[in-house]
Specification:
The protein has about 230 residues and is α/β, with parallel strands linked by helices. The chain has helices at about 10-25, 50-65, 85-115, 125-130, 135-155, 175-180, 190-195, 205-215, and strands at about 5, 25-30, 40-45, 70, 115-120, 160-165. The chain has one domain (about 5-170, about 205-220): 3-Layer(aba) Sandwich (Rossmann fold), CATH 3.40.50. Bound molecules: nicotinamide-adenine-dinucleotide (NAD). It comes from Mycolicibacterium rhodesiae (strain NBB3) (Mycobacterium rhodesiae).
Length: about 230
Amino acid sequence: MKTALVTGGTSGIGRSIADRLRADGNHVASIDITESDTDFSYVADVTDRAAIDAALDAVRSALGPITILVNAAGMTSFRRFTNLTPAEWSKVVDVNLNGVFHVTQAVLPDMLEAGWGRIVNISSSSTHSGSPYQTAYVAAKSAVNGLTKSLALEYGPSGITANVVPPGSIDTPMLRAAEEKGLLGGSIDDIAARIPVRRIGRPEDIASTCSFLVSEEAGYITGQIVGVNGGRCT
Ligand SMILES: NC(=O)c1ccc[n+]([C@@H]2O[C@H](COP(=O)([O-])OP(=O)(O)OC[C@H]3O[C@@H](n4cnc5c(N)ncnc54)[C@H](O)[C@@H]3O)[C@@H](O)[C@H]2O)c1
């Protein structure tokens, strides 16, 4: 049995990924700023390196070395660029980009020791298309795409793959909150009507893709951006 760590595992996409990797037969731990009712879930902020290190020590003691990592924690912000404060810019970059740096750097020694590892970073389909009022978010998620490609090249010789899944619109608390605030330019149903496969994405669509990318069979796939968006971006 392998041990997987999922960040943002309390809600939405991260929660679904954690459930799927557990169903696949892995030990699964999650870290999140929000408490979870699942076993081996730890409260830690991905921007707080000391808190991450403490949580990872606890995970290793309970479940052994971590050789699968899915970085799904994230937050968004909707603000006209000219009104974006430096503090809001920094917060969005800190959580969505620096969080991936911290957790990945803290977990990688386990993978190097094992000579095997799988990293999947959840970015966003907005990195294909851009998204108005989301400059900080799209900038941070685009940087995650680049970070992941470089990790793939650097650690491929060590048996570690690194890939990105940039989701399209997925029905989660994050998307529902944006809809309620009128930030989507229409309802979720309106978005679904414009998507080629004519439905909104489900967290399970992302989880099943991650399940494959962390499997033994996916060992020749690395440095890739694997879009899961119902055909919205091609
Ligand atoms: N839902 C979508 O349509 C969509 C589309 C593209 C990308 N994404 C990305 O998918 C990922 C999951 O999003 P979701 O829709 O499930 O959102 P969500 O809000 O339901 O879940 C995000 C989780 O991340 C956690 N989190 C936030 N900040 C954190 C921090 N600093 N440290 C640790 N945990 C933190 C939250 O507590 C929450 O449990 C995010 O990275 C998001 O940017 C979502």
